[in-house]
Design brief:
The protein has 355 residues and is an all-alpha fold. The protein is built from eleven helices and no strands. It has helices spanning 13-34, 43-60, 62-65, 71-83, 85-100, 112-150, 163-183, 191-208, 218-263, 277-301, 304-319. Helix 5 (85-100) packs antiparallel against helix 6 (112-150) and helix 9 (218-263) runs antiparallel to helix 11 (304-319). The longest helix is centred in the C-terminal third of the chain and has 46 residues, at 218-263. The protein is globular. The protein starts with 12 loop residues before the first helix and ends in a 36-residue tail after the last helix.
């Protein structure tokens, strides 16, 4: 009779964390290879997401992996992940402008094509930077991370807690921190507070995603996390969009005035010709502000955000080992090899053999 393989949740935390990290490293490397295909519109997105997930995993399990992945490697991964943020921000802004500009009457759209052209140029520069500078650096870092994560753990006279019990502890900490940060979001103007809360929500989501197939109660919590992350993310993106529109309107107005001075336009003819670009850009800024207020009301009225900390705490209680199977304190655990082979991870979290 075949022995049932050990689950990810009951596996010792360092070994489980290494499996998850290696799988995410595989995903980032696979997406990096796709960057050479100009027709693959999702390659950049997948590359950025995989790097963020990997960075979040290494951060969450830092005490368990610190002997394998030193701070220098984690710092380099953080720098590369942040360097891809410009491309993502510009993509979001171009998509928003494409959707919203048709909401304005034709006479109020002046300046929007100009701004779209500028953003498109920035996006192309950001794409080139990722392909020509970030991707080669990631390849070198990936090789070092793979060697580090593939190394056998140092002999230890104790065993760490299971991944399930560790996740339960982390969720409790995140629930408390998130509750405090959400309480600071009192208006659409609390941009920094909303952004900080979104980062905490995203970390909890990345923590849960690998274990959802084994922890059924985590599925509805994960859906809630995605909803709240989306709302908080949209609020942040709209804030950045409003700032971008304000800067663009100011630049357009300066250009218009310099042009009038350069050509010596007479006062009688200064008002003729196309409408100043500032009119359309500022009109879009008002649209963005109204959307931001509407999203904030949705966040508050539905109680989505307020429910998350309690749900994380309740899930943590479910992930703890039963009282009768309480784990022995770490200092008292004997050293032993795992008796059963680990259960394969789901497809998106399975490290390829021989990779």
């Amino acid at each position: 009779m075949t022995e049932r393989p050990e689950s990810l949740l009951t596996e010792p935390a360092p070994r489980a964390a290494r499996r998850i990290a290696l799988t995410l490293l595989d995903a980032a490397s696979a997406a990096r290879e796709r960057l050479t295909n100009a027709d693959d519109a999702e390659a950049l997105h997948d590359f950025r997401v995989a790097m963020r997930r990997l960075r979040s995993t290494l951060r969450a399990y830092q005490p368990q992996l610190i002997a394998l992945v030193p701070a220098k490697l984690r710092r380099r991964l953080r720098e590369l992940a942040r360097a891809t943020g410009e491309a993502r921000d510009v993509e979001v802004q171009i998509a928003w402008l494409d959707r919203r500009r048709n909401e304005l009457p034709p006479a109020r759209r002046a300046g929007v094509p100009w701004l779209l052209a500028r953003l498109t140029e920035r996006r192309e520069r950001a794409y080139r930077d990722i392909r020509e500078r970030i991707a080669p650096k990631f390849e070198r870092l990936a090789r070092r991370l793979r060697r580090a994560l593939g190394s056998p753990p140092a002999p230890d006279a104790t065993l760490p807690p299971s991944l399930g019990s560790l996740i339960a502890e982390l969720l409790l900490d995140q629930a408390s921190d998130l509750e405090r940060r959400l309480a600071l979001i009192r208006s659409p103007g609390n941009h920094a507070e909303a952004h900080a809360a979104r980062i905490r929500v995203k970390r909890a989501r990345y923590l849960l995603e690998p274990v959802v197939p084994e922890a059924a109660p985590a599925a509805p919590v994960l859906r809630r996390l995605k909803q709240v992350q989306q709302l908080l993310g949209d609020l942040h993106d709209l804030h950045v969009m409003i700032v971008r529109l304000g800067d663009a309107a100011a630049a357009a107005e300066r250009t218009r005035r310099l042009h009038e001075l350069a050509v010596g336009a007479a006062r009688a003819t200064a008002g003729r010709g196309p409408k100043p670009a500032t009119s359309g850009l500022l009109a879009l800024a008002r649209v963005a502000r109204a959307t931001q207020e509407r999203l904030f009301r949705r966040l508050v009225s539905r109680g989505l955000a307020r429910a998350v900390p309690a749900e994380l705490a309740a899930l943590a209680a479910e992930l703890r080992p039963p009282a009768g199977l309480a784990l022995t304190p770490v200092a008292e655990w004997p050293s032993r090899a795992p008796a059963r082979p680990p259960r394969p991870l789901p497809a998106r979290y399975t490290h390829r053999a021989g990779a």
